Amino acid sequence: MAKYLLLKHYRGAPAAVNDVPMDHWTPEEVSAHMRYMSDFADRLEKTGEFVDGQALAPEGTWVRYDGEGRPPVTDGPFAETKDLIAGWMVIDVDSYDRAVELAGELSAAPGAGGKPLHEWLELRPFLSLPPTVTE
Amino acid sequence: MNLRELTPQVIGVLVRRGADFAAAEDAVQDALVEAVRSWPDDPPRDAKGWLVTVAWRKFLDAARAETARRRREESAEPPPGPVSGTDDTLQLYFLCAHPSLTPASAVALTLRAVGGLTTRQIAQAYLVPEATMAQRISRAKRTVAGVRFDQPGDVATVLRVLYLVFNEGYSGEVDLAAEAIRLTRQLAAAIDHPEVAGLLALMLLHHARRAARTAPDGSLVPLAEQDRGRWDTALIAEGVGILQTALARDRLGEFQAQAAIAALHADAPTAAETDWVQIVEWYDELARLTDSPVVRLNRAVAVGEADGPRAGLAALAGLDAALPRYAAVAAYLHERDGDVQTAARLYAEAARKAANLAERDHLTRQAARLNSRPGR
């Protein structure tokens, strides 16, 4: 088994084929999209491949250490940030091919006009623990 | 009697016999685990007596082991003290909501020591790893280790903890809202206090609407659009009765005022028949009691219903636009005022600022509804 992170971006991914902002869909299209996403997660739970899924608020803060005895420096959010993560799903699957297959299905979530979004999702393998048997 | 209802009483007995709180709490958890295992085949006639005996034995075993470990000679068997169930329960509420605890710790400790939930169940309910929750609970126990068990506590801090548990909704096998109601009922039985009654009424009145609050697909259904036939009339009647008794004592507090607002909503056969004028008056009371900007934001919605959207927008003026849900309230009032374009923009902004998924999806749908209207 191998774990993969499926990343969904607010910004930073190449444009989706069906690229209409969600607040310009119809309410029914929004509902259909949400249903598709939750059905997808439910299905992966049943197949034993779901690990975690979370959505993130779009606005974040940059924070860094500012030296002994000083409070951390905060900055942002920056409007020009190119890459903005919207949420993730972690899956635990048998192969890279299966991970790609699932990412493809998630990318087919319906959007405006009920047509698939064809949005780009980022697929990143987790670095795993070293195996016991190495030779 | 429910096994978990006995938890605080049994901890109380052990503490009165001389066990310190942390050790007593551990011993009772162990006894509960044994009860769950052995009672189905061999149920005791006196459940509480059984738990006290087994928990005391577990405590002594642990204390002896500890004594042996420290190579001390002194006896670990303090003399048995008096048994008084209700006072002990109340003292445990105070201890678990002690002001020295952070809200998250107080919630976890209350659910375990007063609610009798296992660490695993609490961890699952709050979506954190079990080891994290176990650490949170043992740190909390260390924090209150020096607090004397018979010190009078502050009811207000207990109410805040129970309110937090109720508001968390539920995930996993434990229904936190139902658990909060059970714990607040138990508290109301242990202490006569109008705000405890007020919080219990508030919980019952909100819980009564739960089935109507979400659509089958999980999306939020706003109050005005809820199928009121699905409201639980028995819970509403109970909540209203408790509230009326509390209000008659003329010691108003914020939970009674919030419950009064919930009761006025529950009382309206349709959304259009809601007594918004009275609701605004209760928000005025609430604003005097709490001076909270969130209350004034909600008051603006009520003013918008009572006196029209312009009055509602006027009531918004002077409030900080960075308040949670400010954009959502402004969007609603602008739509009612006929300014669809501003409303759509504000709904989209509110969705970006939403703190939970259900609310975000709901607000996105509102923006979508306005943007997809014919002629736009």
UniProtKB/TrEMBL annotation, chain A:
What SUPFAM superfamilies would the database entry show?
Answer: Dimeric alpha+beta barrel
Give start and end of each YCII-related domain: 4-106
Quote the PANTHER family the UniProt record gives: BLL7171 PROTEIN (PTHR35174:SF3), BLL7171 PROTEIN-RELATED (PTHR35174)
Family statement drawn from the similarity comment of this UniProt entry: Belongs to the YciI family.
What is the protein name for this chain? YCII-related domain-containing protein
UniProtKB/TrEMBL annotation, chain B:
Q: Give a GO biological-process term.
A: DNA-templated transcription initiation
Q: Which InterPro entries match?
A: DUF6596, RNA_pol_sigma70_r2, RNA_pol_sigma70_r4_t2, RNA_pol_sigma_r2, RNA_pol_sigma_r3/r4-like, WH-like_DNA-bd_sf
Q: Does the keyword Transcription regulation apply?
A: yes
> Which keywords accompany this UniProt record?
Sigma factor, Transcription, Transcription regulation
Q: Name one GO molecular function term.
A: DNA binding
**RNA polymerase sigma-70 region domain ranges (all copies):** 5-67
Query: From which residue to which does the signal peptide run?
Result: none
Q: Where is the RNA polymerase sigma factor 70 region 4 type domain?
A: 93-143
Instruction: Give all residue intervals belonging to the DUF6596 domain.
Output: 156-246
The record's listing under PANTHER family reads:
BLL6612 PROTEIN, BLL6612 PROTEIN-RELATED
Say which family it is in.
Answer: Belongs to the sigma-70 factor family. ECF subfamily.
This protein is called what?
Answer: RNA polymerase sigma factor
User: Which species?
Assistant: Spirilliplanes yamanashiensis
